Amino acid sequence: MSGGRAPREVRGQGDATGGDGIFCDVCGGGYRDLLFIGRDRLYGVPGWFPLVRCQDCGLVYVSPRPSFDEMSRYYPQEDYDLYNKAAGLKDRSLEELGRLLGPRKGLIERYRRPGRLLDIGFGDGSFLYFMKETGWDVTGVDANEKMVELMTQAGIDARAGQLEDAGFGDGAFDVVTLWGVLEHVQSPRRTIDEIGRITGEDSLLVIYTQNAAAPEAGLLGPDWFIYEVPRHLYSFNLGNLERLLAAGGFRVVETVYETPLYYCQMNWQYFKERRLRRPGDVVHTPSFLDRLVVKGLSKYKKLVDGHRWSSAMTVYAVKGQGVRS
Ligand SMILES: [Zn+2]
Fold first, then answer.
1. Residues with Cβ–ion distance below 5 A, ligand 1
2. What is the pLDDT of residues 101-121, one digit of tens each?
3. Distance of CA 297 from the midpoint of ligand 1 (Å)
4. Which site in 26, 41, 251, 283 is 20 to 30 Å from 174, CA atoms measured?
5. Domain for residue 285, yes or no?
6. How far is CA 114 from CA 121, 207, 313, in A?
7. Position 88 in a domain
């Protein structure tokens, strides 16, 4: 076979055709570089997972990708911390929740007045609960059945399973949010397509996810905490995320960058553990050295916060003209 450019028709179509993570889910490209073969650093579930980067759009993804059913073994079965938080929601004051979640709500309401909101992968449910108590008509969908049960008991419309299983009607929502969720789904393209269907014109889509353009990603490789294989099946940068959203009819209007200090602490913990062979819990029982390093890292965090080099980003994207309602 002669060299040169590959004809476009030999390139893959991603998961839309039932792929298993061999082709890029954003652009369909098949040319990619192996970053490293990683393992579960957080829970220590056995297995090795190759992480690759698409040569066309830079999407980082686990390839081959474990199926939805296989993924369930990589999540802790009983997360009591999560359950306790959800069960205690009614006892928390709106002021307290507002301190944590007010900025998110404020940004959303810059683009949309309170209406119908869907939170995909609602975690401890605090965002759903807070939005409901402050005038929004909320719905949640989550794979954790126990959490769905707890939210239902709290009077919230919550559905179990993947987004595609919920069967929401066309144009059912004005705002859809995914806080740390898009990196976990089987096919972000399929998720965004479905969000495109269930949102009306001028709706708002909000996505919080890690930013693979952060310098730590390249510097630390397998020790970058939020590569988080195998649970994070994808790591985006702003460019490929914009491209994915555009395919679903959404245009990014605002990006908020931040570097959570917790990420910096965990980066140091992973680096120390693998490169220096010195395990230790930096977050809960920090040594003198840990405290010194984390002090330095918090300075770094302040330096990059708000910059496109931050390790996490929240994108606000509008559909159609995005005129305020
Ligand atoms: Zn790609």
1. 24, 26-27, 29, 54, 56-57, 59
2. 999 999 999 999 999 999 999
3. 32
4. 26
5. yes
6. 20, 18, 23
7. no
